[in-house]
TrEMBL record:
InterPro entries: DNA/RNA_pol_sf (IPR043502), Endo/exonu/phosph_ase_sf (IPR036691), RT_dom (IPR000477). This is Reverse transcriptase domain-containing protein. The gene is BX547934.1. Residues 436-702 form the Reverse transcriptase domain. Pfam families: RVT_1.
Length: 1059
């Protein structure tokens, strides 16, 4: 858009369900044009939105400016088609397009020249050569003109263009519509293929009463006939029919009234002005007034709803707020696949997915595969009984109430809100439907149906169907059943799924998988072999897993017959159609694959993926041996990473996976598999798989160079964050709203990478600068950053700087490390730190990171730095350790001797004699009985500074009872590593920010003017009233003394001096 002045000009181009790509856009600074270069299905257009001047000279200037820019874009895109439309304030033909007619065509001369130069035609006039319709009139209708029109390239086929002039409310102009069907078949009406319940109807008392009556009617019939599935299907049909009719009746009546008014206005405006009677003029004014009232009513309703939501949710952490700026540039349904005919697109899509979901299950291969892994972990007897118990009414109710709100329903159109509204009445009905279905081993027809919505994969060509991801919309009654069994299966997964699998498992995180790969690379010197990491890619893994394999896997892991029967029932007769632009495709059966959108699908996939893990570990494959441990595999759902000893293992790994493929249906996509060598590798590929220097793994760029890894990952994120925040600057948000956005649109985008990577100082500074500048709209900073970081009770706005947040992430890494130091995710750093007493001891030491006698990765250095910022090493005789001490150095490095440490010699106090001096060599040997060579003794004792000895003379330690080497018992440790597992990020962040927050300078100013001010009450008073954030912001600015008042306003002539 381009703003005009307060009184005139201003143009905006809005997109609604837009299927093209906006390649470029530009506008003038005066609010007179917006240009967009658009690509629609390979056709490039220049779309110009124009607002003309009221003078000939102004319009001449405008057309000259347009000519310059159009010529520029034509040089870039020679085949551009032009669509130029708007209010030109000029009539193309004064004799036809003005009333009273005029012969003076001086104003339109430049326009005609412009049209001739670019071969443009006035498409409405071409299609209506003699018609006299006007798009503007004055209040008395004594003066009219057609000054709003579309100019299009004359090479466009006029048969694919539809244009019309339509009555418009609340303006003295009419709308001029233009429809261009670049695809000849696109003119077919695109319709929404399935009905969806309007949830607002559930607030109508009559609807509630009538639905309750329907439920009771069909429930009674079902109890009498014992045909619960049949009556459930009939109930859904009647309920949907009733809700459709109820919702459409009022809307139809309103629409009918609107159409009648528009039709009458159109009829009156087509009468030649000279033939309009006074009665016609009166009626025209009356009908226009009616149209205005109709749209005013619509606008007022929308305004009330919007204002209510803004007061309730505006500038809050809600989906409503963030959808204000959410871009939906692509309508998520396939409309073109290098095929123009929608019917052919529909058939092609249907056939593609029919073939994709066609079973190729080899039962004998699957059984043979299972026999090769005889000793998998199975569920315990009590867990099997838990999964096998009959469905209860409480489970149904719980599943209903856990349905997600505001989600698209399946083909029946009944939303989650519908089920939640009538949960108590529907639960008994559904329970009996499920029981009957499990007995019959078949679901009712609508519970087996799904609707595939195809989501385009980012940065992929959407004209290839492989580049769309199918998401299955399922009916909520099916999802309730699936949720019940998903909850049961999830409860037992921890006992059968290895820790090497992080996907869909509670208390496991994707960052573990990334850190393991990075630790292997950063500590590759610990690996003696020329090892490789193989990043495996399966072709459409979720869509090709065989149902027969899933059922065998359930049996393999010891799930009972009732549970297995339930899963088989849910997958029997499963079928889908595809949502397309022109309707839906023909239905097809799902004979393999799990539906992405089904609550139990992720967990079923995990047990299949676990069999691959078991098979790999029992195969002859040799993994990477590092830190006294051999590792083979890590997984995140289907993202599988293999760790191979040498290049000779690559082909063997492929063969091993192929055996799994024959049984499961999951096949390698060799073209997308990648190898990363831990050491230098001269080969470009091994076994047909490319050897890369850098790979994109789980969204993180993995690179061997630690110094460039940070910039490779954060540069793009920072650029995107900057663009997103800049887009929000166009809105008039309060400071509180902008602070919220620094977290939601800023920090949230950066968190994922920071969990796994170190972030260098320059990047941290750049991030905080971007966030802080955004709060102040890239203008003057009126308040210190340290004050903004204060809580609301202390005059701040809870601003969160990324530096503190990054430190919190590193402390959280320590927390998860302490939970299981020997796990596959932590064994490498555990091995590293064990060389200097272990991480738990190191955190208690007065270390200097650069003096530690180890080669540490940048990530672990940053972790230690974060801890040192909050754990202060004040001198204490009992806690002044010899080892890893920045003051006790040998050859510029901290000292650590494992034999001394293992024998309990930890602190300097243990080396001091009763009179405050150092133990002699003989005294040391007699005291500890440790066979220490004199050289070792000299290294340690000579490294102790004289200043330290002076401190110990003043603090003689008589009790040498060793303190526990456990940082969790310290004050900081108790905050960071609580005994009870819980989220404590806020408490950790407080430790980092307590030295940075400060008292606002205005406190002293106001205290000098007024006595006994209760500052906490002053800061929090506005939040106690139902005020929006903009009003609260005024109070905030006044107290902080940067709200513009008299002297400021006079200086900039905003108000006169006598004010």
């Amino acid at each position: 858009f381009s703003h005009g002045s307060e009184r005139s000009a201003g143009v905006i181009t809005l997109k609604n369900k837009f299927n093209g790509n906006v390649m470029h856009s530009e506008m003038d600074s005066e609010g007179h044009f917006v240009l967009m270069i658009i690509n629609i299905d390979g056709t490039f257009l220049l779309l110009a939105n124009v607002y003309g001047y009221n003078s000939k000279s102004g319009n001449d200037f405008l057309l000259d400016a347009l000519e310059t820019r159009i010529l520029f874009w034509l040089s870039k895109y020679p085949n551009l088609l032009l669509l130029v439309g708007g209010d030109f304030n000029t009539a193309p033909d004064p004799s036809l397009d003005r009333w009273p007619p005029s012969s003076n065509n001086s104003l339109s001369c430049c326009l005609n020249t412009f049209m001739q130069k670019f071969h443009l035609i006035d498409i409405w006039r071409v299609k209506n050569p003699k018609a006299r319709l006007f798009t503007w009139s004055n209040k008395s209708n004594s003066s009219k003109s057609r000054i709003d029109f579309w100019l299009i390239s004359d090479c466009l086929n006029r048969n694919i263009v539809i244009t019309s002039i339509m009555p418009t409310p609340l303006t003295d102009h009419k709308a001029v519509s233009l429809q261009v069907f670049f695809n000849a078949n696109a003119a077919q009406t695109c319709r929404n293929c399935y009905w969806k319940l309007n949830n607002s109807l559930l607030k109508h008392e009559k609807v509630i009463e009538d639905i309750l009556s329907l439920i009771k009617n069909f429930w009674d019939k079902a109890q009498i006939s014992h045909l619960y599935c049949q009556n459930w299907e009939l109930f859904k049909f009647e309920a949907a029919k009733y809700l459709r009719e109820y919702g459409s009746s009022a809307a139809k009546q309103r629409k009918k009234e609107e159409i009648n008014v528009i039709t009458r206005i159109s009829a009156l405006t087509q009468i030649p002005p000279e033939n309009l009677s006074e009665e016609d003029k009166t009626e025209l004014a009356l009908q226009q007034s009616k149209l205005n009232d109709i749209y005013k009513l619509k606008a007022e309703g929308a305004f009330v709803r919007s204002r209510r939501r803004w007061l309730e949710e505006g500038e809050q952490h809600s989906s409503y707020f963030f959808k204000l700026e959410k871009s939906r540039s692509k309508f998520s349904s396939v409309r073109r696949l290098n095929i123009d005919d929608p019917r052919k697109v529909s058939t092609y899509c249907s056939n593609f997915y029919k073939d994709l979901y066609k079973s190729e299950f080899d039962e004998s291969a699957a059984l043979n595969f299972m026999d090769q892994i005889p000793d998998v972990r199975t569920v315990k007897e009590d867990q099997m009984s838990f999964c096998d118990r009959p469905i209860s009414i409480s489970e149904v109710l719980h599943a209903i109430r856990r349905l997600k709100l505001n989600k698209s329903p399946g083909t029946d159109g009944l939303t989650s809100e519908f089920y939640i509204t009538f949960a108590d009445q529907l639960a008994p009905f559904l329970l009996n439907v499920y029981i009957e279905s499990l007995i019959n081993q078949s679901l009712p027809p609508t519970l087996s149906q799904g609707l595939l919505t195809l989501i385009p994969k980012p940065k992929k060509d959407p004209t290839y169907i492989d580049n769309w991801r199918p998401i299955c919309l399922l009916n909520n009654d099916y999802k309730i059943l699936a949720q019940i069994f998903a909850k049961r299966l999830k409860a037992v997964l921890n006992d059968i799924i290895d820790e090497t699998q992080s996907g869909f498992m509670a208390n496991r995180h994707i960052s573990n998988n990334i850190r393991l790969v990075l630790d292997l690379i950063d500590y590759a010197d610990l690996c003696e072999d020329d090892s490789f990491i193989l990043f495996v890619d399966f072709c459409k893994a979720f869509d090709t897993i065989e149902h027969g394999f899933i059922f065998q896997a359930l049996d393999k892991f010891g799930l009972g017959s009732y549970f297995q029967n339930a899963i088989k029932t849910m997958y029997k007769n499963a079928n889908c159609s595809i949502k397309l632009q022109a309707g839906t495709s023909p239905r097809f059966n799902l004979n393999r694959g799990i539906r992405q959108g089904c609550p139990i699908s992720p967990y079923l996939f995990l047990i299949c993926a676990q069999l691959l893990s078991d098979y790999i570990k029992r195969s002859p494959l040799k993994g990477i041996t590092i830190a006294d441990k051999e590792i083979f595999i890590s997984q995140l759902a289907d993202d599988t990473t293999l760790f191979l000893k040498s290049a000779s293992q690559v082909q063997m790994a492929i063969n091993t996976i192929n055996a799994f493929s024959l049984a499961s249906g999951l096949h390698l996509n060799i073209g997308k598999c990648e190898l990363l060598a831990l050491r230098n590798c001269s080969s470009l590929s091994i076994a047909g798989i490319p050897v890369k220097e850098s790979v994109n793994y789980l969204g993180i760029i993995i690179n061997k160079n630690q110094s460039t890894r940070c910039s490779l990952n954060f540069t793009q994120i920072l650029d995107k964050t900057q663009r997103k925040l800049n887009a929000w600057l166009q809105r008039d948000l309060s400071i509180k709203g902008r602070v919220l956005l620094t977290k939601a649109e800023g920090l949230s985008r950066l968190t994922y990478a920071a969990l796994s990577l170190d972030v260098n100082k320059e990047t941290l500074a750049d991030i905080d600068r971007i966030l802080y500048n955004f709060i102040w709209k890239n203008r003057i900073h009126y308040i210190k950053r340290s004050v903004l970081s204060n809580s609301y009770q202390h005059g701040g706005v809870n601003f969160l700087d990324f530096s503190s947040l990054n430190n919190v992430f590193k402390i959280n890494w320590i927390k998860q490390f302490f939970r299981n130091p020997t796990s596959i995710w932590n064994f490498i750093p555990n091995y590293i730190f064990s060389n200097i007493g272990g991480l738990n001891f190191l955190l208690l030491c007065n270390y200097n990171i650069d003096k530690i006698p180890l080669k540490l990765s940048n990530f672990h250095k940053q972790m230690l730095l974060s801890w040192s910022l909050i754990y202060k090493h004040n001198f204490s005789p009992h806690r002044y350790y010899i080892w890893n001490n920045r003051d006790i150095l040998y050859k510029h490095k901290s000292v650590f001797l494992s034999n001394w440490f293992d024998n309990g010699i930890h602190s300097v106090a243990q080396l001091i004699n009763p009179v405050g001096g150092l133990l002699s060599y003989s005294e040391f040997m007699n005291t500890y009985g440790l066979p220490v060579p004199p050289k070792e003794y000299a290294i340690v004792f000579d490294a102790i500074p004289a200043g330290v000895l002076m401190l110990f003379r003043d603090h003689v330690v008589n009790d040498l009872t060793p303190l526990p080497l456990d940082p969790t018992v310290t004050y900081v440790g108790q905050v960071c590593f609580p005994a009870i597992k819980r989220k404590n990020n806020r408490e950790i962040r407080t430790l980092f920010q307590k030295d940075r927050t400060c008292v606002p300078t205005v406190v002293a100013y106001w205290n000098n003017l007024y006595q006994n001010l209760e500052w906490e009450k002053i800061w929090t008073l506005p939040s106690k009233f139902l005020l929006n954030n903009k009003v609260k912001e005024i109070s905030f600015k006044i107290i902080h003394r940067f709200y513009p008042t008299r002297s400021f306003l006079v200086r900039y002539t905003v108000i006169p001096r006598y004010f």
